[in-house]
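User: Let's play a game. I give you a shape written as tokens, and you guess the letters that built it. Ready? Here's round one.
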């Protein structure tokens, strides 16, 4: 009777998608996304809309893809996906207003090429683009190595099927979730066709710079997306799309192929990630103003104490508490971010449906920020208690609060990097992995805090020039190693600041020969650390830096020029970007020419302050977002003279009380 099953098997194989599923299962791999036959680009898409629109096709691969900032046009997004690296088409489109409503003409395309010389186009399989009305700029996805892009075809409406064929890439662009649901019902797989990758082009409101990504019809593979570019579960970079479409990375890509991490229910996992990212964005909008509020209140209390230097009284006490809280909040926030993944996993263990309700983001954000503030308050109390002057005749030696708070922050940064950097990838201060700026390692924001924390310890411990330099070298090593900080600019900044410490903090006048020698050794050490595993390794910040160095000194110098250009754009586009540089400038002026209330500061304090200002200046020169990162270092640097002044005007400690005699010692 087995012969009877043969016709049945033929019929089943002839059903739409059935034979294809078997072919795809043979071709694909359970740990990576197979080469798609179609990419569906949705201009505006939320996670719930993506999962609902594709529910009939049972997406078994889900996650998120980083997007460009909200001000970038559709052309920039499409070209970045096609080129495997970020492309900026905004200047070219602004120079040609007529190009904004449709497919850019040849002159605008050539301007885009000139503005992005490192981008390489035309490395995709034979590509056809179809778009909904108003999205014709998506035709740039098929842009070749030369000439203009071919005009896209219409997407069509109604029940007209959309066939998918092997060896051809079909790019479909729709405006929103309902249009995606209509398109998903029209997809038809032919024999040998690959899966369909669906992704959003713009981040949904309150979701940082990420959009949902799902893969349809990939049998034999189930899980959350990840990649070597992000090292984050559920998140891939937009640079990872081209290597996946082109069957692997090639020269000119900044990304790697999209991989899969096994998960029994990827749709539910993606929903939970969506709620947690929304909570992160909300928590960050609360955490940063609260830190600024503590700093501003500390400043007001300091001004009140300065106006009554003879008897600062309660104003000085309030300033001390608020200043210590300001220094403790970055540590509290970081510890809360380190604990958040563990808390989310524990809640899911107790409640399988946890963090899937759309309303769960707000209370989760409140708990996130609240726990950070509670930790900061506890650190403040401990630091102030240890900072109390020792009583006369007592053997206990007090520890200055800035020393403890700076050391705690340094310790937490190193600990989190050693544990995988989960807290630093989602900080409440600075950019996160979900902003698409830095997916792993030590970001510029917390590096600036760590750099200034070294100055806190050096100023109030106090440390010698050699000890300060050693601490900065250690920070540079941790920050530069690709498996830890993976931050080339930070490693260079820290190493050069260490060399400056041996000059600025050393007794006597520095010699020019010694300065040049130390600077050269610092640069060499930073490059060695940063390149530690960059050459020949996976795509990483150090790997890209190694590639630039291999091109020659001129190309390596171009890195610094590019960093400065980005910082200048930040200063030109945002008035808030000036806060950090102005704080650093004020710290430098206090070190060189302090105002009347601070003229009695110890010479050591002023030298450490000047060293910190120099390090922050290097931070601007050597890092792409240095001007915004100096808001962190500048805040900590200005706390140094403020705390030193409070120490100078602290009331003398009362004499220690005479011990009461024991009952056996009482004389009769």
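Assistant: Ready! My guess for every position:
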């Amino acid at each position: 009777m087995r012969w009877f099953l043969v016709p049945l098997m033929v019929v089943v194989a002839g059903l739409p998608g059935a034979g294809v599923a078997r072919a795809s299962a043979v071709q694909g791999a359970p740990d990576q996304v197979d080469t798609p036959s179609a990419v569906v680009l949705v201009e505006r898409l939320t996670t719930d809309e993506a999962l609902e629109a594709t529910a009939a096709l049972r997406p078994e691969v889900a996650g998120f893809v980083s997007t460009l900032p909200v001000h970038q046009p559709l052309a920039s997004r499409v070209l970045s996906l096609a080129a495997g690296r970020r492309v900026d088409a905004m200047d070219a489109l602004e120079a040609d207003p007529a190009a904004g409503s449709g497919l850019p003409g040849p002159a605008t395309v050539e301007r885009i090429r000139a503005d992005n010389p490192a981008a390489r186009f035309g490395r995709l399989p034979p590509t056809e683009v179809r778009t909904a009305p108003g999205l014709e700029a998506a035709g740039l996805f098929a842009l070749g190595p030369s000439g203009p892009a071919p005009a896209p075809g219409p997407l069509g409406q109604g029940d007209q099927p959309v066939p998918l064929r092997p060896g051809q890439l079909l790019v479909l662009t729709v405006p929103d979730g309902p249009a995606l649901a209509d398109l998903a019902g029209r997809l038809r797989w032919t024999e040998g066709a690959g899966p369909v990758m669906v992704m959003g082009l713009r981040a949904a409101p309150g979701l940082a710079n990420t959009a949902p990504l799902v893969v349809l019809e990939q049998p034999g593979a189930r899980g959350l997306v990840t990649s070597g570019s992000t090292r984050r579960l559920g998140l891939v970079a937009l640079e990872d799309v081209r290597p996946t479409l082109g069957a692997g990375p090639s020269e000119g890509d900044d990304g790697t192929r999209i991989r899969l991490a096994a998960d029994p229910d990827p749709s539910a996992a993606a929903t939970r990630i969506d709620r947690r990212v929304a909570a992160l964005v909300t928590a960050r909008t609360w955490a940063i103003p609260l830190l600024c509020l503590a700093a501003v209140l500390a400043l007001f209390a300091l001004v009140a104490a300065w106006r009554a230097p003879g008897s600062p009284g309660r104003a000085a006490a309030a300033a001390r508490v608020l200043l210590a809280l300001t220094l403790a909040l970055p540590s509290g926030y970081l510890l809360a971010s380190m604990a958040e993944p563990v808390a989310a996993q524990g809640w899911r263990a107790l409640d399988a449906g946890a963090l899937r309700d759309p309303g769960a983001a707000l209370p989760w954000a409140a708990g996130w920020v609240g726990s950070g503030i509670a930790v900061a308050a506890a650190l403040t109390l401990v630091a102030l208690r240890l900072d109390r002057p020792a009583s006369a005749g007592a053997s206990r030696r007090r520890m200055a609060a800035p020393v403890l708070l700076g050391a705690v922050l340094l310790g937490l940064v190193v600990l989190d990097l050693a544990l995988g950097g989960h807290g630093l990838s989602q900080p409440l201060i600075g950019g996160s992995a979900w902003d698409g700026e830095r997916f792993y390692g030590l970001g510029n924001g917390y590096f600036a805090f760590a750099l200034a924390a070294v100055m806190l310890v050096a100023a109030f411990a106090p440390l010698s020039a050699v000890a300060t330099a050693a601490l900065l070298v250690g920070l540079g090593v941790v920050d530069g190693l690709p498996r830890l900080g993976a931050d080339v600019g930070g490693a260079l900044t820290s190493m050069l600041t260490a060399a400056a410490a041996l000059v600025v903090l050393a007794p006597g006048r520095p010699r020019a020969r010694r300065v040049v020698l130390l600077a050269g050794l610092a640069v060499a050490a930073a490059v060695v650390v940063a390149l530690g595993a960059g050459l020949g390794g996976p795509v990483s910040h150090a790997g890209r830096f190694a590639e630039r160095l291999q091109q020659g000194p001129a190309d390596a110098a171009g890195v610094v020029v590019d960093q400065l250009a980005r910082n200048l754009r930040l200063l030109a586009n945002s008035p808030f970007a000036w806060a950090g540089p102005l704080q650093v400038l004020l710290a430098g002026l206090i070190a060189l020419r302090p105002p009347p209330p601070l003229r009695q500061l110890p010479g050591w304090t002023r030298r450490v302050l000047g060293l910190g200002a120099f390090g922050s200046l290097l931070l601007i020169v050597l890092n792409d977002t240095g001007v915004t990162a100096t808001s962190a270092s500048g805040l900590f640097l200005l706390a140094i003279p403020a705390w030193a002044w409070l120490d100078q005007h602290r009331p003398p400690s009362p004499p220690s009380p005479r011990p009461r005699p024991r009952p056996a010692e009482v004389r009769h």
